[in-house]
Model the fold of this input.
Amino acid sequence: MSIFKIALAVWLLMLASPVLLAAEEGAADEKRAIPPEALFAAMLVKAEKGQPQAMFNVGLLYEQGLGVPRNLTKALEWYGKAAQAGEREAYFRMGVCHEIGLGTTADLAKAVAAYEKAAEMGSADGQHKMASLYLSGQGIAKDEAKGLALLIQAAQAGNGLAANELAAVYLQGLLGQDKDQAKAFEWFQKSADSGNLEAIKNLAVMLKDGIGRKPDPESALRWYLIAQKGGLRAQDLETIIADLKKKVSGERAKKIEGEATAWIEAYANRQAGMRI
Done:
């Protein structure tokens, strides 16, 4: 699933896995205060004065080709400047560039070094990425204990992807952890609140099937509708929603649908506020 446009949700661009795409993205677009070209010009002035966040934003704008022709080499160059100035998320983007070869030749060792630096500086995205690398043994010696510790750190720091994965760990009893449906529900909830589409679906399933708690058709319906409005495509989704609507009154079902729409709109507005 794709993510919001750079000018509207800068930090979401750092995520490398599915994130909820609000159906009202167009409405969020209308809230952009200035044209992309003016945005880039303003950021460049600040970046050239040495502001770390502005340096990072210039890199993002070059990477996305927003307000300026796309130039991955310059993007990486500005990420490097921002990183040297202490911008932790710039290290994460540098890691992405080195891992997949954006503006440079792919180099996993350099990518791991950049991700590790981002994680050490407190980047939740960096912590999540390092957790994935430790758990898979990709580019670094496999270490499940370190991977789990970093996954927990990332989830606690608000990374929705990490929270969804941590919930699955507790639900299935993975990585040496006891099965704990209550903890799984808690982390699916936090991930869903952050807009992670997979977690929204997982939370809806737990509520529908009564996993770790009594079945809650109304809450399940709300989250399934949010998932549907957010772009989830599942073969049986419409059937599940129809069955849940049969378990609540018509008026209540209509109200729940309105609540789901309101959730999506509030999410879109929150992300629209996270501008450069």
Observations:
- The radius of gyration is 20 Å.
- Residues 1-32 have pLDDT under 50 and may be disordered.
